[in-house]
Amino acid sequence: MADKKTLGTAKRFGARYGPTKKYKLAAIEAVQRSEQQCPYCNKFSVRWQSVGIFHCSKCGADFTAGAWEVKRKVTLAEAAVDDRPVEIEEDIVEEQQ
User: Fold this and answer.
1) Is there a single domain that holds both residue 49 and residue 79?
2) Which residues contact residue 22 at a Cβ distance below 8 angstroms, ignoring those fewer than 6 apart?
């Protein structure tokens, strides 16, 4: 049998609106209501306030982000660092041969 999806908080709509819309809403609300990582202090204590506005209970920062979740943007410097281990591994392999 296939795994059943859970409706979670979307059960409040009962038989209205159809299952697909309720599953999508339940997934969004699960992310929205979970604690997320603060971009300032890196603690998992950020809570959603309203659309696009978040508050960190540890450092007290109020900031804007995505509509329902804090998405971390990767800068060019971080992208370059991510490629570096691959180059180092290739150098090590060449030295061992």
Assistant:
1) yes
2) 7, 10, 13
